[in-house]
Amino acid sequence: MACERCLFGWPGRAGWAMRGAMAEIEIGAFQTLVVRTQTDFGLYLGDEDPDDQVLLPRKYEPVDVELGDEIRVFVYTDSEDRPVATTQVPKATAGDFALLRVVDRNEHGAFLDWGLDKDLFAPTNEQSRMLAVGDELVFAVVRASRDGRMKAASLLGPYPHCQARPPPAAQ
Q1: What is residue 103's DSSP assignment?
Q2: Which residues, in sequence order, are bridge partners of residue 10?
Q3: What is the CA 133 to chain-centroid distance, rounded?
Q4: What global pTM score does this model have?
Q5: Cα 25 versus chain centre, distance
Q6: Planar angle of CA 132, 134, 140, nearest 5 degrees
Q7: 120 Cβ partners below 8 Å, 6+ apart?
Q8: CB atoms within 10 A of CB 125
Q9: Which tens digits make up the pLDDT trace of 5-31?
């Protein structure tokens, strides 16, 4: 289990909470969710709380899935900060360390290949050195306490309780 600091941000700061009722569906983690609704653009998955739902876009849908089926997914936020599910397997989940490669950068930080279609952002102020495209470095993968987004940091001092472990396998 990942440490509370890595999952929810710095001690003393407000804990992470997503807008809306996403309390039970955890950003940055694998979970098994139930198919609630089928639409033209994907499936809405949920847990025990009928108000908690997350979209699994059509391109990640397993074959022959039906309402009521359980699907193991990884949940993260899309480019508009909405929770989204995927059947892709990231190289690390919240609270893990991982060796990740820089695939792009701008004045705000670097973008890392972590195994998902959406690259993982590493803010400049959380980098141990200036990174260039192609660099590989060990990063802590964490959830930002301010907005719940996933991010990476190569300044590992603030994240001593993160764990180096193989990523969970998709089932």
Answers
A1: E
A2: none
A3: 22
A4: 0.77
A5: 12
A6: 80
A7: 100, 111, 112, 113, 114, 139, 141, 150, 151, 152
A8: 9
A9: 444 333 322 233 333 444 478 899 999
